[in-house]
Amino acid sequence: MEKLVSSWNNVQTVPEKYIFPPEKRPGNVTFNASKSIPVIDLEAIAISQDRDATIQKILKAGQDYGFFQVINHGVAEDLMNDTMSVFKEFFELPEEDKTSFYCEDAMRNNHCMLYTSSLLYATEDVHLWRDNLRNSCHPLEECIQHWPEKPTRYRHVVGAYATEVKKLSATILELLCEGLGLESGHFGGKLSEIPSLLVNHYPPCPDPSLTLGVSEHCDPNLITILQQDSYVFGLQVLKNGEWIGVEPISNAFVVNMGYQMQIISNSKLRSVEHRAVTNSEKARTSVAMFFIPNGDSIVEPAKALVDPRNPAIYRSFQYKEFISHFMNKTGGIDVALEPFKL
Predict the structure, then answer these.
(1) Mean pLDDT, contiguous 10-residue spans, the chain (342 residues)
(2) ω before 139 within 30° of 0 (cis)?
(3) For 5-340, which CATH superfamily applies?
(4) What is the pTM of this model?
(5) Which residues fall in a coiled-coil region (predicted)?
(6) Angstrom distance (rounded) from CA 342 to CA 336
(7) Which residue among 99, 204, 221, 339 sits deepest, i.e. has the most Cβ atoms within 10 Å of its Cβ?
């Protein structure tokens, strides 16, 4: 527990183990939120003509940025606010109320796990300035029985939240199916079977120019749906070689494409590098829900998107092969996809 950043972050300087190499440091992190990342109103999908236009906006965002935000998405604002409050309350609990969830063993398959930096803490060269709370959500009815009982409303609120965000993911995946010309439900079943909820908690940092909350990466899964802290900036996306900030919008979700979406769409949609910077004055909390293929599921470019003029870019594989490579890879981001290209 003493390794949690939140247990010792009231320091004057960044400890050496958290200082990134010069070429990886964010440098001056004066945060300029970009207005260019699309914000898409899902209320419009109820009307046929507006639905088509909305789908095209989603596809273009997935092609140009790999990211977009959604509003009027059907998840109640009160539920979003309550969920964020519950997670912030959890991190403020006394140590004795959190100890049973703390884990340093990356191989343990806990239904709820509190850890710091990453699951590779023991072997990583540089630590991330964050604490993490991971909640397994599949099957939800079973997992929820192992979640924290403090705060007292934790299970009720987070369970309802996981259910509603899963419904939202199904809506977004169906819109992507329509836009790509795939059969309804193509992304359902095994390809998005395993939802996992990760809370990132970034305590204030004495020098945000030296460290990162999350280093640059692409998500290995299908899609990710993220709720940002409404009042603290931090998420950045790489666009044309520059890091641009994703504006926190109240009652909005950030949606990003994972590597599996890029592969299945035959690179019509892109998984894009992103990172999180820290803040010297305020803590920041974000809630990410990952939609992950079953390990035995077959991932490959959708046959409807492959023809002699558009040959497959990637080979067929089981997701467990991909995630094993992803977790053990060394080198840059491009290394993740290289073994799966034709």
Answers:
(1) 90 96 87 84 88 96 98 98 98 94 78 92 94 97 96 98 98 98 96 98 97 96 97 92 93 98 98 96 97 98 97 98 88 84 96
(2) yes
(3) B-lactam Antibiotic, Isopenicillin N Synthase; Chain (2.60.120.330)
(4) 0.96
(5) none
(6) 14
(7) 221
